[in-house]
Amino acid sequence: DVKVTQSSRYLVKRTGEKVFLECVQDMDHENMFWYRQDPGLGLRLIYFSYDVKMKEKGDIPEGYSVSREKKERFSLILESASTNQTSMYLCASSLGGRGNEQYFGPGTRLTVT
Amino acid sequence: LAKTTQPISMDSYEGQEVNITCSHNNIATNDYITWYQQFPSQGPRFIIQGYKTKVTNEVASLFIPADRKSSTLSLPRVSLSDTAVYYCLVGDGNSGGGADGLTFGKGTHLIIQP
């Protein structure tokens, strides 16, 4: 089975802190994704990466950056956390093309106070 | 950008067949149609994918008309455990080139009653 793991299930940070969310997949997938999910807004794509060191902006990249130094690991970085970044963050991975099946991690519930 | 439109919510009863339709008027030649299911506090889970006509697996069927401007996810004989949010995505098999085909949107909240 494909396994996508995220570093934390729950995280509480203060406004202005730098926050790292880590995601690891074990199936040698080329693509990795970061989404956030908020009530009434569904899942929104923040960034995705289709290869090591490659990244592309999604629908809502503002306030976030990403890093992919190794194929299996994709990090989401909040340079200076704000309360409006309180959300559920979901990581996913997939083989090959953008239309291919994505496998999701369990999510990280981030609260910024 | 192949945007999708789905109903916000649907209700049905145990044992019924449920059909959820997704509109994607701007679907491109290389685009596939993929459906996901999401339960509360979990990430979405792949259900089925198709390109044209009909696809069936152990969980669901996917009907795609000839013009491919819409698709219908069919869940046979639903149970209470099928209560979830269902998302329709349209995207091609290429890597890179933007976020096309990676927009989940708000999905359809399906509620199954006893």
Mean pLDDT of chain A: 92
* Residue share in β-strands of chain A: over 45%
Average pLDDT for all residues of chain B? 89
Q: Helical percent range of chain A?
A: under 10%
Estimate the helix proportion of chain B, in percent.
under 10%
- Mind telling me the C-alpha Rg of chain A? 13 Å
According to DSSP, the number of beta strands of chain A is 11
Shape of chain B: globular
Based on Cα principal axes, name the global outline of chain A.
globular
Give a quick account of the main beta sheet of chain A: strands, pairing sense, barrel closure. Answer: 7 strands, mixed
Coarse structural class of chain B = mainly beta
Q: Order of strands across the biggest sheet of chain B?
A: 1-9-8-3-4
Radius of gyration of chain B equals: 14 Å
Tally of individual helices of chain A:
0
Number of strands of chain B: 9
Structural class of the secondary structure composition of chain A?
A: mainly beta
What is the percentage of strand-forming residues of chain B?
A: over 45%
Topology as H/E string of chain B?
Answer: EEEEEEEEE
Indicate the multimeric state: heterodimer
Notes on the protein architecture:
The complex is a heterodimer of chains A (113) and B (114). Chain A contains no helices and eleven strands. With 113 residues, chain A is mainly β. The termini of chain A are far apart. The mean pLDDT of chain A is 92. Chain B is an all-beta fold. In chain B, the strands form two sheets. A five-stranded mixed beta sheet of chain B has the order 1-9-8-3-4, with no helix packed on it. Chain B has a four-stranded antiparallel beta sheet with strand order 2-7-6-5, with no helix packed on it. The mean pLDDT of chain B is 89. Chains A and B meet through strand 4, strand 5, strand 6 and strand 10 of A and strand 3, strand 4 and strand 8 of B.
